[in-house]
Specification:
The protein has 274 residues and is an alpha+beta fold. It has 7 helices and 10 strands. A hairpin with a 3-residue loop joins strand 2 and strand 3 (158-163). It is rod-shaped.
């Protein structure tokens, strides 16, 4: 039995190319990459499990979309580290350790100068990993280019946003500085603009006050009645009914108030000149 094992091991060793040849370094580099890739996968799984265990321990309520975003960013980070470690180990096969550190220092300096946007993008991805600025499925507006849409994918370098017209925006994470997150609002405006005859302004204000006493559900606070122009017109006056609705409920609130106002103004003949 022992002899058979030795024979098998020797047959495997016979397949290994001689040291110093191109095939030897190719095989060694491939095995190094596979080993580091496996370690990266295991590390990703351990980090995710540690993250979720800590979340349960600290009772932090992370949304499922945020967890999906973290999984994507952690996987992207570990893949990037695996590629860097593979390059360093492959270089160590040809360069002495002392010279290797010097080479890496020069390479880092050249990378910092020539690939500054890429470095900025990766650093931006790391920031997104630790800060809960947005998550997959959120509707956002990003950057000075007014990129508006739904976040579909986030990697360590790029954020993918599906635009309102169906187009796909690829936003480098280095450009993600100003973020407007529509999905995390606390209220939505349900304002109504109303133009009435000036001679019936007093009657209109009485009716509007009656409406805002009971604006209905999903209205967070008592509406306000203001004049945007700050003046009373000679023939007509435009009033603005400012309404704060619960986030995402503005269309329903506006329709309900419009129907109520239309009914009252028609009943008291405010909308007619006579």
């Amino acid at each position: 039995m022992l002899h058979a094992i030795r024979t098998f091991i020797q047959s495997i060793l016979d397949l290994v190319p001689p040291a110093g040849t191109f095939n030897y370094y190719l095989l060694r580099g491939t095995l190094t990459f596979l080993l580091i890739a496996i370690i990266a996968r295991i590390g990703t799984a351990l980090i995710r499990r540690t993250l979720f265990s800590r979340r349960r321990l600290l009772n932090r309520q992370l949304s499922e979309r945020r967890l999906t975003t973290l999984r994507s960013l952690i996987g992207s980070l570990m893949n990037g580290l695996a590629v860097i470690m593979t390059l360093i180990l492959v270089l160590s096969m040809f360069v002495q350790p002392a010279a290797l550190f010097t080479t890496l220092g020069l390479f880092s300096a050249a990378l910092g100068l020539g690939a500054r946007p890429f470095v900025s993008d990766f650093l931006g991805g790391i920031v997104l990993l630790f800060e809960d600025q947005f998550a997959l499925g959120d509707k956002v507006e990003i950057g000075d280019q007014h990129v508006v849409g739904i976040v579909e994918q986030v990697t360590l370098r790029t954020t993918y946003v599906r635009g309102e017209s169906g187009e796909l925006w690829l936003v480098p994470n280095g450009d993600v500085r100003t973020i407007r997150n529509f999905s995390r609002g606390t209220w939505s405006p349900a304002n109504i603009r109303l133009t009435v005859p000036t001679k019936k302004l007093d009657e209109t204000l009485v009716l509007l006050l009656d409406v805002i006493k009971d604006p209905g559900p999903d209205v967070l606070e008592e509406p306000e009645i203001i004049s945007e122009a700050g003046e009373i017109g000679t023939a007509t006056t435009t009033l603005l009914l400012k309404v704060k609705a619960r986030y995402g409920k503005a269309p329903q609130v506006r329709r309900r108030l419009l129907a109520k106002l239309q009914s009252l103004l028609t009943e008291y003949h405010v909308l007619t000149e006579s």
